[in-house]
């Protein structure tokens, strides 16, 4: 009986996460259907749109075929041919992870929690597959295997994280023996342990600092560009309900904008369409959609734009300064210059990989024609970040008291 109750409870948690994720788009779209369109359009159209948006948020590719009239009005070359929409509004993935973490904590409080985790993941996968199949039309066709797998992986990440964090005390108690056995296996390599810990901590910390500064930068740009954003809202003529729907969609892309700001600070910047560039050296944009939030994009040339590169450099230096005392202590003061230099370079690699992965998940195709290239280049962002973090981290680790061999 306990196992059955655990399974049902976990399945309900998965159902709630799917329902909330789809409902974020479905509720404003349904209000739009009822009051602005007067119930004259089949509601299933709005259901399919909400599910497609939710699937996109988890990285699912959706193949679109525009109506010829709409395609001709866009003015983009190739707008009338099928194209793949692959850019993910990461706000939906973030909501799924957070709700999954909440579900993981709740499941961790009941008996047979590992059975509950498996039941929740299986239920989520079935629901995700069903939602994907319900949206397939000639005009919008999500990838079926991605629709079943990718949202489930995003949910599972949050679920496992919530389970581990929610029961960290008991997990630590149960994992003491295995943890000690791992340390015993590494007992002959204390320097490897110390270097790995410093590299992971420093690299993650440097990337986190850049992301935090990027979030502040995006908030400042939105405030400074308030008038331009409002004028773009007025130009869309979407009325109140349409404006609410547009705002919800833009909020889902805020995590993307923060990552793009980080790419700007690192150096490579990002693109809003093939041939465009938004970087510290200046902004070069061609025709872009009249999306209000894009009014916050910087324009023109920046005489002092290169100063943005100081942020990742300072982040790498600060991260190295903070991890150095523990690193030196773990090595019993026997840290050589070679070990410090190697650790600094590893900090750069970890931070570069972290920002490169974030750039990868934030970019994609946002439409036909030139809009197939939107977002930063993961390779360039990762490489620039690794170089800036690494050099700064090496300097940070070498400052202070000279190391002893």
Automatic annotation (TrEMBL):
It holds the Pfam family DUF6350. This is Uncharacterized protein. Keywords: Membrane, Transmembrane, Transmembrane helix. It comes from Lacisediminihabitans profunda. It comes from the Bacteria. The chain crosses the membrane at residues 12-35, 83-101, 113-136, 148-173, 194-224, 236-254, 261-282, 302-323, 335-359, 379-399. The lineage of its organism: Bacteria, Bacillati, Actinomycetota, Actinomycetes, Micrococcales.
